[in-house]
Task: structure prediction
Amino acid sequence: MTGPRADLAPGELLIAHARVRARDLGRRLESTMVDRQLYEELRRFLDEVGFPACDAFEALAGSGDRELRKRLHQVLGIEAW
Result:
């Protein structure tokens, strides 16, 4: 991996991955409301990636370190304040 995400910590990578995967699942859910396989994928995503990413996000967001918060904004793809 190259670019701004190449030097991310494991928790930051988890958040970035969860964000991309959640968007994909959300788009699929929006277009296909009744799909057992999709709901199973969503359940697995939440258990294996989503909830751990929420925990990592909470830990990063609670940091008083300005540089860490800047990196969190980078991971989420939003402009730093």
Observations:
- The first helix runs from residue 10 to 31.
- The two ends are 26 Å apart (CA to CA).
- The helical segments are 10-31, 36-61, 66-76.
